[in-house]
Amino acid sequence: MSVSSTGRDTPDGNATRRPSEFAALEAIPVTTDDNVTFVIRVLPQDDPTVPVALILPAMALKAKFYLPLAKTLHASGLSVAMCDLRAQGESTPGLDKKSAFGYREILEVDFPTVIKAVRSRFPQAPLYLFGHSLGGQLSVLYAASAPEDVAGVCIIGAGSVYWKAFGPKRWEALWKIQMIGLIARLRGYWPGGMLIGGAMAGGVMIDWARHSRTSRYQPRGTKRDYDQLLSELAIPVLAISLDGDRLGPRSNVDFLCGRMRSAKITPWHLDDSAGVAHLDHFEWIKDSGIIGSAAASWIIDGQLPAPSR
Fold first, then answer.
1. How confident is the model at residue 225 (pLDDT cuts 50, 70, 90)?
2. What percent of the chain has pLDDT over 70?
3. Are 203 and 113 contacting, i.e. CB atoms less than 8 angstroms apart?
4. Whose CA, among 156, 161, 202, 236, lies 20 to 30 Å from 297?
5. Cα–Cα dist 43/34, whole Å
6. Measured between alpha carbons, how far is residue 288 from residues 33, 137, 195, 260 in Å?
7. Higher-confidence residue: 16 or 193?
């Protein structure tokens, strides 16, 4: 008889491992028409009519990274769903050198499949997208193309990566992002490193670099005018920027918000006065208790809570 990793004896002599908190969540597997499978993780409320927030990750980040945010949103009264982007985390197949997909496949194949499944799981609930970085950009683009599916969007650290929007850092942003796009084009994928630590599909990085160069959203192969759709988007948007965010600074978030000329935008810039200790592009997740509860108030009540004095 052996001792398992959970501290319990197992009669067959094999160690048993208790699933992680994330892996133990309700799972909804869905498969797209081009045979990509996603696993939607769910934290439901008993009341089927409360809003549901679908969390969509940044480049090279897994959905499980956002578990602290999901738990706060849930504790604040929302149902929550989480899902990896294509070739990230639990989605299959994983990333390889032949992963040629870009923004179009994510927006026009993956998101409709995932969102249809979330709406089927919560048929009475208004759906809000909560996107971080690339997940935020894609959230507003999807909402612009399918406003009937989405009641509102929250974005954090999600700004246009148009090089001129980086202000004093614009020349550095220009050469670094275009270098990433060039390497992705030559190698077929981005191996990770400068700016984007993890590996990413070549098509995504090429679309990303094109947007940075031109300011336009022109995913390869699309027939949609996302820039026009974005200008017509008329739903509520909570746009959260972080004072210490180098990758998605306030100027870039403001630039993206300026493209949504018809949206009902609530800007929320976090600095030292907001009571948030972690103002980095990634470390804000450590302050999910503050950020998530405020975002939940915005979703439920239509406004951020009054600042504490």
1. very high
2. 94
3. no
4. 161
5. 28
6. 35, 20, 23, 26
7. 193
Contact status, residue 130 vs residue 51, Cβ threshold 8 Å: no
Per the CB < 8 A criterion, the answer to whether 128 and 153 are in contact is yes
DSSP character for 106?
I
User: Does 168 sit behind a cis peptide bond, omega within 30 degrees of 0 on the bond before it?
Assistant: no
Say how many Å lie between the first and final Cα of the chain, rounded: 59
C-alpha pair distances (Å), 162 with each of 210, 249, 280: 9, 12, 20
Give the per-residue SS3 of 252-279: HHHHHHHHCCCCEEEEEEECHHHCCCCC
Residue type, 283: E
Whole-angstrom distance, CA of residue 173 vs CA of residue 178:
8
Question: Which DSSP symbol is given to 220?
Answer: T
Task: Give the pairing of strands 79-82 and 37-43.
Answer: antiparallel
What's the predicted TM-score (pTM) here?
A: 0.93
Which runs of consecutive H residues, i.e. helices, occur in 67-201?
67-75, 103-105, 111-121, 134-145, 170-187
In whole angstroms, what is the distance from residue 2 CA to residue 15 CA? Answer: 7
DSSP assignment string, 28-82: EEEE-TTS-EEEEEEE--SSTTS-EEEEEPPTT--GGGGHHHHHHHHHTT-EEEE
Beta strands across the sheet bearing 37-43: 26-31, 37-43, 79-82, 52-56, 127-132, 152-156, 236-242, 264-270
